[in-house]
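Appendix B. Chain record.
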Amino acid sequence: MAWILLGIAGILEVVWAFSMKQSEGFTRPIPTAITVVTVIASFALLAWSMRTLPLGTAYGIWTGIGAVGAFLVGIVVLGEPATLVRIGAVTLIVAGLVLLKLTSHS
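Structure tokens predicted for this chain:
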């Protein structure tokens, strides 16, 4: 169950990062509200997953999901560049996430 909660927390991190971008510095009320609600929910689920998962694993996976997800949203939704170097960097993040999961004892 902790892994599922952690995955949802990571997805919510992507949502709040995107809505924060859309809030234009917290000047737009709806994206700002979405940011606040999803950041609180993301942190709550992260904290809940940390009850059984190791700190380094849980936090690493959470930030990794957020980083990779935000990268993908940036490319697909915002039209950010998908250069070979950026893709290579994200590939390394994904490899790190896989290693963290494979070496986790929970």
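Further analysis of this model is presented in Appendix C.
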